[in-house]
Amino acid sequence: MNSTRCFRRALLVPVAAMALSLISLGPGPALAQSPPAARPTQAPAASTAPTPAPSATPMPPPAENKSPADSPAAATPPPAVAPVQTADPFGEEISLASKKVVVLKGTANWDSAFDTLMESFKALTALLDKQSIAHPGNGMIVYTSTDDTGFTYLAELPVDQEPKNLGKDMSIGKSPEGKALKFVHRGSYDNMDNTYEAITNHLDDKKLEAKDTFIEEYITDPLKTQEDKLVINVYVPLK
What is the pLDDT of residues 182-213, one digit of tens each? Predict the structure, then answer.
């Protein structure tokens, strides 16, 4: 707006200066007088014919007032606004329902945790595929104990029917149930520490007490998905 105002002032200043100069100079020099014209001996007779009045010019019809709603542009509805994508819920209270699962118990070191968990999922999948048993649902890891070097866990796959000829450390059981908090992790397994740190801070802020276990549900198939594209729901059962 300042640049526009300066531009308008630049246009107005020369016009005002010209008007002031004309006023200060006053009227111009008198022109030389010409000799008076000879008076006629007889004034011409005034014309008796009246001067015709100027013909009236028809006025244009008044413009029709139209409301903005009558305009074609106004009649067009505004484009729909795309919904805003929100972040994943963090600490959502849910109730876990128990499912029939085939279970593989194992232990792992933190340095090779993801590879060990994937081997467990491969062993369970191979067992079910060999017996043509579907596993409708996501694979889960239930952490039963942890220390500085590693942890013990249960790898679980939901099943509709019980498989036969179970392998070593395999069994049929039920997945965890009850009240829990749901958290979502997106990315590689190596970055899970950041998620669990945020979970710990959330529990401390809310003064909530968790049970001595937590569950990871792999929403994306970890055997077919790039590790940095994983989506994992973390469930923290509450006391």
Answer: 999 999 999 999 999 999 999 999 999 999 89
pTM over 0.85: no
Residue 237 is encoded by which pair of tokens? 């059962």
* pLDDT tens readout for residues 127-152: 999 999 998 999 999 999 999 999 99
The domain of 188 spans 92-237
DSSP string, the chain: -HHHHHHHHHHHHHHHHHHHHHHHH-SPPPPPPPPPPPPPSSPPPPP-SPPPPPPPPPPPPPPPP--GGGSHHHHSPPPPPPPPPPPPPSSEEEEEPP-EEEEEEEEEEGGGHHHHHHHHHHHHHHHHHHTT----S--EEEEEEE-SSEEEEEEEEE-SS--SS--TTEEEEE---EEEEEEEEES-GGGHHHHHHHHHHHHHHHT--B-S-EEEEESS-TTTS-GGG-EEEEEEEB-
116: domain CATH number is 3.20.80.10
199: number of Cβ within 10 Å: 20
Over range 22-30, report the average pLDDT: 41
Q: Does residue 164 carry a pLDDT above 80?
A: yes
Q: Is residue 177 part of a domain?
A: yes
Phi, psi of 113 (to 5 degrees): -60, -50
Structural domain contains residue 149: yes
CA distances for 200 relative to 92, 135, 143, 153, 197, angstroms: 14, 32, 16, 20, 5
| 172 occurs within a structural domain | yes
What is the pLDDT averaged over residues 25-31? 42
